[in-house]
Design goal:
alpha+beta; 6-stranded mixed β-sheet; 10 helices; about 25% strand
């Protein structure tokens, strides 16, 4: 076990870093960023705190090389989701190989592995730099990684999300959209004056379900099928009135090579089909948020390096796969940096009982060090 990795993880888990954009009054990343920066400097590393958004700092830790070598970026997020329903979420508890606590799996173990790997790389006197970015806000808007990418360049990157020791080379994106259906408000006793916007939305909901069925026939070999679902619906004022407005929130999970423009066109085509069935339908759609999918070539050098290093550490080649969720890897790859995900095993991300395998965290640390030695020497 790399010296101090478990104690570092315990300290990270003990710091409340609930994302305030998700939970009103959440602690945010200031305390944990202060700790990470101090730990890095005490370890002989450079540490820069970035805080373009007040109260939402990220830390860039750097093991500076001799010069003339390539730069490896290791990235993990410090924010967590809520602790509702958890017992002692910030009291790290070790039971056998498992460390329990909020953020243990998602993803403070990955952050600890990246930080310790950065420290170990510094001790090896490599030519290139190893950078560990402990970023804010991945669970909401990814403010942190976007700020880091404005200041950091790298030749390759590893995002240490919990991948169960799998080399992940692709994941889905998503598009959040909103469909507004307009009716006409009227007293419930005067049906000849009212147009029920909620009822008018019914065929749209049915069409969304049918579209999801069609999408099932278009799977990606690594990340599976695309999907669409109606996530929220809002409309009406009171029981005695015809609703003048109904708003349906929609999430479309996208595959590599699918685009936001294509999703918008798909949704507009759906509405056109609904209008053809009901010429009086008054509805429009708009895109709220886009997070692009991610994919790197299976034969990219960083994939091969990580695979070789993992084979040496684990004693067998790691699985190479895709993931259905979204991560900051998409932003890093979009910045032109070849990127993979590789992280520890665990369970309970976003759940009331969360844990990470300590031995897998140590294995990830060793793999990261081995990749740095090969890439940055």
């Amino acid at each position: 076990m790399p010296a101090g990795t478990l104690e570092l993880l315990k300290t990270l888990v003990a710091i409340d870093s609930v994302n305030p954009s998700l939970v009103a009054g959440g602690a945010g990343e200031r305390e944990i960023a202060t700790f990470v920066a101090g730990w890095a400097r005490d370890s002989g590393l450079e540490a820069d705190v970035l805080e373009r958004t007040p109260g939402r700092p990220s830390v860039v830790v750097r093991a500076r090389g001799r010069g003339g070598g390539r730069t490896l970026l290791l990235c993990g997020h410090c924010d967590t989701v809520s602790v509702e329903g958890m017992r002692d979420p910030f009291a790290p508890r070790v039971e056998g190989d498992r460390l329990h606590g909020r953020g243990a799996c998602d993803m403070k173990a990955g952050v600890a592995a990246a930080l310790v790997a950065c420290r170990e790389a510094a001790a090896r006197g490599l030519a290139g730099d190893v950078v560990a970015a402990a970023v804010a806000d991945e669970e909401h808007s990814s403010l942190g990684v976007q700020e880091v990418l404005a200041t950091v360049r790298a030749d390759a990157a590893i995002v240490t999300e919990p991948t169960d020791l799998t080399v992940v080379i692709a994941h889905k994106g998503f598009v959040w959209s909103e469909v507004e259906v307009r009716g006409r408000a009227a007293h419930g006793s005067r049906p000849h004056l009212g147009v029920d916007a909620i009822a008018k939305a019914g065929p749209i909901l049915t069409a969304i379900s049918h579209l999801d069925g069609h999408l099932e026939a278009r799977p990606h070999p690594l990340v599976g099928r695309p999907s669409v679902h109606a996530s929220t619906i809002h409309g009406g004022e009171e029981l005695s009135s015809y609703p003048a407005r109904c708003v349906v929130g929609i999430e479309r999970r996208t595959l590599p090579e699918e685009t936001a423009a294509g999703v918008a066109a798909e949704l507009e085509s759906l509405l056109e089909a609904c209008r053809a069935q009901d010429p009086e339908l008054d509805a429009s759609q708009r895109t709220l948020l886009v997070r692009e999918p991610f994919e790197v070539a299976a034969d990219a050098p960083i994939v091969e390096l990580a695979g070789d290093a993992a084979t040496a550490v684990l004693g067998a080649p790691p699985a190479v796969a895709g993931a259905g969720y979204w991560t900051d890897a998409a932003f890093i790859a979009a910045a032109g940096i070849p990127t993979i995900l590789f992280g520890p095993s665990g369970e309970g991300a976003h759940a009331a009982e969360e844990w990470v395998s300590v031995s897998s965290m140590d294995a990830v640390t060793d793999v990261l060090v081995a990749v740095a030695e090969q890439m940055c020497s």
